[in-house]
Amino acid sequence: MPSVTAANTSTTQPASSLAPPYRTDGRNTTTSMPPATLPATAATNEYLIKAKEFTGKPLTSTMQETQVGNYVIKYDKSTGEMFVGHIKQREIRTYYIDDKRSIDPFQDAINLAREK
Asked: Fewest C-beta in 10 Å: which of 17, 47, 68, 93?
């Protein structure tokens, strides 16, 4: 998996084309990520650390990974972690914990990447 950098680290919330990393009620989707109201550097740094840790994990039986055009998509069914990165631009496009709204979040990410 290629290493990636954040597409935009100056905002409070990381940009996401699939699902926001925070719920609309203000609570976060993981117990360790700070709410979006904290300074951007705290949220962004933890977001980047978690995204990079996830991309570095070796694939297991609960993980799926694919490449669609210039996008790499990695999903872990057991933790709900989803990562989408742009290979050529070496950017994190999104990283989040699936909120179970979708029946197949991995396929949804693939379909969205095909549209881009």
From this structure: 17
Question: What's the rounded Cα separation, in Å, for the pair 54 and 48?
Answer: 10
- Whole-model pTM: value is 0.64
Helix (H) or strand (E) holding 51: helix 40-56
- Tens of each residue's pLDDT in the chain, 116 residues: 444 444 444 333 344 444 444 434 444 444 344 444 445 566 788 888 999 999 999 999 999 999 999 999 999 999 999 999 999 998 999 999 999 899 999 999 999 999 87
How far is Cα 21 from Cα 98, in angstroms, rounded to an integer? 9
Domain-by-domain residue ranges, the chain? 5-115
Strand ranges for 7-48 from DSSP E? none
Give ∠ CA 62-66-67 in degrees, rounded to 5: 160
Q: Does domain 5-115 have CATH number 3.10.450?
A: yes
* Helix or strand (DSSP H, E) at 82: strand 81-86
